[in-house]
Amino acid sequence: MDPNHPACGDGSPADTTTTETTRRRLLAAGGATALTGLAGCTGIMNSIAGAILEDINVLNGTDQERSGTVTVVDPNGDTQLDESFTVAPSDSDDEESDEPSSTPTYSEVFTDAGEYTVTVALDSPINETSSREATVTVDNPEEQHIIVGLGADGAPNPIEILVIDEFSDLADRFGDAA
Questions:
Q1: Residues 147, 108: Cα–Cα separation, whole Å
Q2: What pLDDT is stored for residue 42 in this prediction?
Q3: φ/ψ of residue 176, rounded to 5
Q4: Does 3.10.20 match the CATH number of domain 18-177?
Q5: What is the average per-residue pLDDT within 30-38?
Q6: Nearest to 87 by CA among 17, 3, 20
């Protein structure tokens, strides 16, 4: 069993099933974002991305593989997620490559609406930043997602932690760089 992808029902506080989403699927959704954005139909793109995104999503915008841990504490003070991850570099989705790439996603993390504390610790720093902790508000646990962005273009910090309702919120947050 892959330690980055525990099996369902492992007895953790919340059943934190990790879905390995291929970078190709995520980029396809991003490509759909660009196309539908040009056509003015971001609703279609958000529907596609909504099927891919989970409660917690780690995205790598750097040209290097990144490893670390992500911890999420719920509004009641209970740890709902404490997992190691490895995420492929953003440029690893070469069509001619047989190497798999993934975007770590974690479901069944949100328990209630409220403030969640997210802590990310990287094994190697991005621009001298190796960790970040942020408290974010999740108002609608059924519809919202936490994005952990590593080295995202246009981001004010090397490690960004934010809540989005829809995938297009990333473009609103980072402009055309998302």
A1: 15
A2: 54
A3: -70, -10
A4: no
A5: 46
A6: 20
